[in-house]
Amino acid sequence: MVSQRGLEVLRVIVQDYVSSREPVGSKAIVDRHQFGVSAATIRNDMALLEEEELIVAPHTSSGRVPTDKGYRLFVDHLAEVKHITPTQKQAIDQFLDDSADFDELLGRTVRLLSQLTNQVAIVQYPTLGSTRIRHIELVSLGNNRALCVVISDNGQVEQKLIDLEVELNETDLAQLCSGINEQVAGKLHSELSESITSLTSRVHNALIPAVTHIASALSDSIQANRQNKLVMAGTANLVRTGEDFSDSIYPVLEAIEEQVVLLKLLTEMKADADEVAVSIGREHSNSGLEQASLLSTGYSSAGEKATLGLVGPTRMDYSSNIASIRAVARYLTRVLDAR
């Protein structure tokens, strides 16, 4: 059983180690913090923490560093809730508000979050289930091909190259585009293919193959679950903190590149009362990320929820990072709701 003072000792060990990257000894704790007891007493507290597997002694140091279990106790019970500064709030607001479209907005989001935290930032695209079609454009590319651009009411833009199998002149293409928009404007994405297919009874016979191929292509592309798509920023931050990974940084980099595994981990994490879920080290074993921590929270777009995440070494500033990812997710949702 760890005493209250023992928990405070664990708190300062985590905080000092995160800030200095140096193992923390009893003398340093007494010198830096006001415990009002001797170094010998602190050593006894540290011995109990070590028995509980909350801290460990690296091979080359007499100091101690937190274990995954120690970080977990810190995150769950000891970390102070932080708030971003007014300057940071203003920067987030301005940076995200200036985004021209949905893709740029998500790109800006991960770059901003990466800069705020010095970690790898990840954002998952939402599904399109409850978003509605605003407009569709068809652009002739010649050789019986066209570029179909689908613009949703939340600003998302989907592009799909389509083989029409028939040659359409500009008049035919404009007529087809107009007819499609009459059918699909304001409709849900889930209704898109059926709405376009219904045009076959209303267009000239020469246009029916084109209508069929457009409906089929959009069904395959847009109706596919876009939750498999991620945007990342800040991978270079891992390289700069490479010494935090005792074995090698390469398994971490490989795991991040393997987006399916990363997406599964992030979406399976359950958020706590602060709306941010934290998974530490070996808590996500067999992933290549056993020496990393993951933070995950949700944002919403047109009623569809998706995930915003952070990946970094277990030696990270959890309090600040939790505050940053939570704030960015809330601002992102607010910007999307206003569109």
| Broad CATH class of the largest domain | Alpha Beta
Low-pLDDT stretches? none
CATH superfamily grouping of the largest domain: GAF domain
Summing up helix and strand content along with how strands pair, one would put the structural category as: alpha+beta
Helical residue percent band? 40-55%
Assembly classification: single chain
CATH architecture identity of the largest domain:
2-Layer Sandwich
Number of domains: 3
Major β-sheet annotation: 5 strands, antiparallel
Strand content: 15-25%
Topology, element by element:
Blueprint: H1 4-20, H2 26-32, H3 39-51, E1 55-56, E2 65-66, H4 68-78, H5 86-97, H6 102-117, E3 120-124, E4 133-142, E5 145-152, E6 157-163, H7 170-184, H8 192-197, H9 208-222, E7 230-233, H10 235-240, H11 250-257, H12 259-268, E8 277-280, E9 292-301, E10 304-313, H13 318-337
Antiparallel strand pairs: 1-2, 3-7, 3-10, 4-5, 5-6, 8-9, 9-10
Helix pairs in contact: 1-3, 1-4, 2-3, 5-6, 5-13, 6-13
